[in-house]
Design brief:
- The protein contains 18 helices and 14 strands.
- With 413 residues, the protein is α/β, with parallel strands linked by helices.
- Helix 9 crosses helix 15, helix 11 crosses helix 15 and helix 12 packs across helix 15.
- Helix content is 41%, strand content 17%.
Amino acid sequence: MPDAAQFPRLAEKSLADALADTPVVVVQGPRQCGKTTLALRVGRPLGFEYLNLDDDASRRAAQDDPAGFVARLPERVIIDEVQRAPELFLPLKVEVDRRRVPGRFLLTGSTNVLLVPRVADSLAGRMGSIRLHPLAQCELARKEPRFLETILKGDFKIRTSPRLGEELAERIVGGGFPAALARNTAARRRQWYTDDLDALVQRDLRDLSRISSLRAIPKLLKLAASQTARLINVSELATPFEVSRPTIRDYVTLLERIFLLDELPPWHSNRMKRLVKTPKLHLADSGLACALLGITATELWQDRTMLGQLLETFVYGELRRQSSGIEEPIDFSHYRDKDGAEVDIVIKHSGARVSGVEVKASSTVHPTDFRGLRRLREATGKRFTCGVVLYDGEVTVGFGDGMFAVPLAALWA
C-alpha cells in the first residue's frame, strides 16, 4: 500500500537547504500530496514541533489573537495548512525581524500563499518556497531520476528500455497521490478523488474566495480534464455554465491557486512573429484527470486520442516533479507556431539553454515526429541543447543534430 512516508522525496534536500539559511520556509502543493509527511521527516530531527490549523481550536486561536499566537509558538515550529489563518503572516514578519535566524518557521500550504499580496509583501526576503507535487514515478520506483539531468546535458546513449504497453495506461490512471494509490481497486481510487475534491471545494475554495456557485467547480474540473494538454479555451469552458466568461476565468485562476490546474505558458521570442501565444491547460495529476473523466486503464488504452492527451499531462507532471530535485532553476513552456509546428514541453535551463520534449503514445518514431523540435532548434540556434521524442518503444536512438528518440520508461527507469 503506497504511503507518502514510505518514499524519499526529491524535494527533501531543497527543503533542508532552505531551512539552513532562511527564517521562514513554506512547502506548497495540493492537499494529500505529502507536504506534512515531508515537513515532519525533515523538521522533526531538527527539533521542530508541530501545529495543524485544520484543528478548530488552533485555527480559532490563530485567527482571534494572531500576535499572541505567534508570541507563544515554540522555538522552531511546523505550522500545517497555514493558509487557513492568513492573519498570522504579519506577526510572523514581526517575530522574524525581531530575531532573524534561519529555520524558525516551517509552513505548509494547500493554496499558493505567495499570490496573496499582503503575504508576499510582509515576508518578502524572509521566506523561501518549496513546491511539492504528488509522487513522481521515479519516487514510487525508489530510483534516482536521470532523465531530466540527461536532457539538460543533451547526452543520450544508445540503450534499451522495456516497452510499457498497457502498463502505461495503468500508470497514467494511477497518478501520484499517495492516498489514492493506497486504494486496492480503480473504483476505490475514483471514490477517493471524489471525496477529496468535495473537501477541497468545501474547505480551501470557500476559505479562499466568495465563489457564487461552488457546485460549478467539480463540473468545471471535469471539463478541464477533457481538455488537458490542449490550448486553454475559456469560452469553451464557460459554455455549459450560466456564468460569464470572466467568472470562469476567475474560477480557473482559483483552481490554479489550490494546485489542481496548471497553465503551461507559451514559449516566446522577440524575433519570431508567428508564434501562438495561448497557454496550455494541464490537470495537476493524470490520476485526478482520469477519475474526473471516469475512465479506466483499459478504456484509456483503447481511446488513442484521450491517451495522447493524458500521456502528455503525465509526462509534463513527471518532469515538473523531477525538477524539484534539481538545484538549477528550470522553466517549462510549450512551443506552437501558426504553421502548426509544435513542441509539447520546452525546458529552459542553465541561463538561456533550451531543450524540447515531444510525447508520442505510439511504439514507432518517424523523422516527421521531429518537425516541431527542428523548428525550435532553428529559433534558438546555439542555445538549443537537444530535442527528444518520448515514445512507447524499447531503444534510445539518435536522429542526428541533437535529436533523440527515447522510450517512455526511461523517464524513471
